[in-house]
Amino acid sequence: MNGDGKTSINLMNFLKNWLINHINDTDKSYSKDLIAKMQATGGILT
């Protein structure tokens, strides 16, 4: 690290973007599948 904080800022921006994309893509896709399964099974997950 060079001491000027750029590395920390870049890392925080990377992590923020990764988390936002993960929530918007992966988690939303998973929740759609989970909701469909719950509706098909009357709320019972196996």
Rounded mean pLDDT is: 87
Elements, N to C (H/E): H
Q: How far apart are the first and last residues' alpha carbons, in Å?
A: 48 Å
Low-confidence segments: none
Quickly give the structural class: mainly alpha
- In total, the number of strands is 0
Walk me through the topology:
Elements: H1 6-40
Give a written overview of the molecule.
It is rod-shaped, with a radius of gyration of 18 Å. The chain contains 1 helix and no strands. The chain has 46 residues and is mainly alpha-helical. It has one domain (1-46). Helices cover 76% and strands 0% of the residues. The chain starts with 5 loop residues before the first helix and ends in a 6-residue tail after the last helix.
How would you summarize what this structure contains?
76% of the residues lie in helices and 0% in strands. With 46 residues, the chain is mainly alpha-helical.
Give structural attributes.
46 residues, mainly alpha, 1 helix
